[in-house]
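can u pls check wat happens w/ adenosine-5'-triphosphate
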Amino acid sequence: MRDMVYKALTIAGSDSGGGAGIQADLKTFHQFRVFGMSAITAVTAQNTLGVQAVYPLPLEAIEKQIDSVAVDLSPDAVKTGMLFSHEIIELVAQKTAQYRWTRIVVDPVMVAKGGAPLLKQEAIEAFKRHMLPLAYVLTPNIPEAEVLTNMRIETFEDRKEAAKKLHHLGVRYVVMKGGHAEGSELVDLLYDGERFYEWKSERIETKHTHGTGCTFAAAITAQLAKGKTIYEAIDIAKRFIQAAVEQALHIGSGHGPTNHWALYE
Ligand SMILES: Nc1ncnc2c1ncn2[C@@H]1O[C@H](COP(=O)(O)OP(=O)(O)OP(=O)(O)O)[C@@H](O)[C@H]1O
Ligand SMILES: Cc1ncc(CO)c(N)n1
């Protein structure tokens, strides 16, 4: 008998440099033997040096991609990345309700590592209103959690308080990533509405971290598509991102991508 085929859809921006966005998501899905599908929200001209240009797609083009995938290929899990404008956010929220997607991982992408905006300032309120209540999993880094909660996050206790706030705003599972904190130990935190769980790892000293957030959230999405629990999904995603950063490819002359094939070479 054939093995079951699991399918995941990413709704995100294209990174021509291949390290983040749609490209990171599809490479990660594939690495976990999950069939990857995509709806592109915006095309970026991007490399390891930064984002040179952003071209959002017409709403109709985004809608048609989502409809084509949804009506025929029913994804087992969905991930969202760069959503860019309030119009795109409203469309994605409406489609999520229409197709009754429940296993949805929302990565609140706001700025690229070099500082280029990937979500317009005017779209933040729409993101909070529409995306947070839909999120089965939300994967903010610390600066994104600050914007979404309107609070400063300095201590570990602040991170916990922000996670609770995000849960109150409608998120089922809050995964607060620790990449932007100080210190040689890196802690990713999960809040499930009752308890906190921690995943600790050694911080790797490297500039090659382009796309870590996308890759980590895509690994969680792939595991959810396979029917894993959030706790199992984070276990695997954490091991995956650690290996991908540790064995980075050293390509390009700026912040290079992680190695999506590191774990299963
Ligand atoms: N230097 C590092 N060493 C080991 N793991 C890392 C490192 N940097 C990030 N990670 C891991 O990568 C994942 C993403 O974390 P981070 O907080 O950097 O996300 P991000 O800022 O959203 O990424 P991006 O820049 O792609 O948006 C987390 O699981 C984090 O622990
Ligand atoms: C298209 C795209 N999505 C997300 C990120 C965040 O890493 C990026 N740099 N580019």
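The chain has a mean pLDDT of 97.
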